[in-house]
Structure formats: structure tokens, C-alpha cells
Amino acid sequence: MEKILIIGATGKIGSELIKLFDGQKQLVKLLLRANSKELCDKYETVIGDLSDKESLRNAMLDVKTVFLLSSPSPEQVYLQKNLIDVAKELNINHIVRVSAMGIEYDSNNPFTITSIARWHNEIDKYLEASKIKFTLIKPNYFMQNLGGFRNSIQEESCFYATITPSAKVSLVHITDIARLAYHVLININDHINKSYDITGPEALSFSDIAKYISIDLNKTVNYVQVSEQELKTQLSKDNIPEWFIKDMLGFFKGYSAGCGERINSIQQVANLKPTYFNTMLGFFK
Ligand SMILES: NC(=O)c1ccc[n+]([C@@H]2O[C@H](COP(=O)([O-])OP(=O)(O)OC[C@H]3O[C@@H](n4cnc5c(N)ncnc54)[C@H](OP(=O)(O)O)[C@@H]3O)[C@@H](O)[C@H]2O)c1
Q: Ligand 1: distance of its center to the CA of 2 in Å?
């Protein structure tokens, strides 16, 4: 098999993905921004940055496939377009990119007013126009995002958001995203120019989630719906950037309208066993 360059290996999805390549050292190369003895011992690594085209040229010299993700940020479009430009220059065969579910423009879907949706749309279209073969992996809301509520759950036995308490969301576990990415990367020719929405195997409301967490912590934990203004005020105190707060409210509005409810798990996409929310027990302690 031809070598794969993995970008984002230190992040949530990437760190799960590279575990699946453990023992297949010759197959993957990791692009890292900083040296890591632990990763260098286990994998071939190269130092580079999506902002530095020369480092990308060097990293991609002997690879045919790239796995691409980076953190959501106002620089994401510039950074990932850099990678696509260099990949085109070097005749890279295929890019597997993590995008997001529900970001295609649709006036009925409040997700699409978010910056994150706009950025992903722009990069997805740029990749498509590059004529490099691609696969888009488009996850729903991560189960692990709920870690952001841990402090208030522990201190106040409550967690707060603007989502309607009964609105269902098919949250996905990051290991399922990594498993799908692995499946695509090792069967790359079966996934040319395909796009996969990826969700968990069940849709849960924030009230359902509060019940799971109550069992986990052996105490009653409640989900409390607050107004957009209340959440904004709270998040601003925590120094969260304004664009991120605005996007979070946009996504929550979409979930309240049922836009995150559809189920399309790795079972449907790749016939792999999906991860249920009950495996998150222990996560909130
Ligand atoms: N959270 C959700 O619910 C959700 C849902 C759907 C889609 N997504 C999408 O998932 C993606 C994020 O995935 P994740 O959560 O696994 O990522 P993450 O944990 O934020 O990790 C980001 C990775 O990208 C690397 N990176 C960032 N900037 C870089 C640069 N300039 N050059 C090279 N590498 C760089 C980071 O490396 P360092 O260690 O050097 O920083 C890290 O390995 C985003 O595009 C997001 O929109 C998220």
C-alpha cells in the first residue's frame, strides 16, 4: 500500500486514528508541529505546519494519500487550501478530509449561518474543484464535546445550553470517526469522491443525557435550557472567542430544530459496530 500522511495526529480524532495504525509503521507518516518522543518512537514523523508550504512539500514527497483535519479556526480555510495546493502540485492521489455534517447551504438549517459551516463548505468545494480524488467524513456533534459541561455537572449537578430539552441529537463517539477514517484509508479505492455523514447509533435529547450522567455519578443531574443571552454572558466570562460562541448558538439552534437528529452511524456507512452513549460512563467523574 502507498504511504499515507496524517495531519492532526495529536488531536481528538487523529490520536484515535493513529492507534489503529499502531504496528503498521511503514504505512503512515505523521505531520507534527512539535517534536514528540512518544510518537517518534512509534511512527515515522515529520515536522511541519499547514501554514508553511515548503514543510508540506517535504512531508508529502513520498506519499500518495493525505488524511487532513485541523482545529476549527478563522485560519482553517487558508491552512487547508495550502495543503490542497501543494497536494495538487505534487500529484497526490487522494485526500481524506474531516468536514462536518449539515453544513451544506440550506436556508432552513441554522447550522449554515455559522462560520464553521462556511469554512468547511469553502474547503470542501476547493478540494472538489482541485480534481484530486477525495473522501469527506462529515461527523455530527461529538459525544466528547459534553466534557465542556463537566465543571458545572460536578459543582452544580446541572449543565446549561440553549438546546430544547427534548430535541434529539445523534451524537457520535470520536473513536467511530477514527474507525471510519481508518476503514476509508485502507480501502481507499472504494471511497473515491464520496461524502459520508457520520452520527452515533441513537439520537438522544439533553434530558436523556442528563439521566445517563445521573447514573454515572450516582446523583441527580439536570439539563437546564437557558436563553442565548444567558449562555453568551457565561461563555464570555470564560474567555471563549466571540465567533465560537456565535457558532455554538447556531449549532444549538439547529439541534433544537431537529437538524442533528438523523442517524447514519458507521454501521450504515461501513458495516462497523457503532459506539453507544452508555460507553461514556466514567467520562463525567
Ligand atoms: N467537535 C465537534 O462536534 C465536531 C463535529 C463535526 C466536525 N468537527 C470538525 O472536526 C475537526 C477537528 O477535529 P478534532 O476535534 O479531532 O481536532 P483537534 O482535537 O482540535 O486537533 C486539531 C489537530 O490539528 C492540528 N493542527 C492545527 N493547526 C495546525 C497547523 N497549522 N498545522 C498542522 N497541524 C495543525 C493540531 O496539532 P497541534 O497538536 O500541533 O495543535 C491537532 O493535531 C474540525 O474541522 C471540526 O470542525 C467537529
A: 24
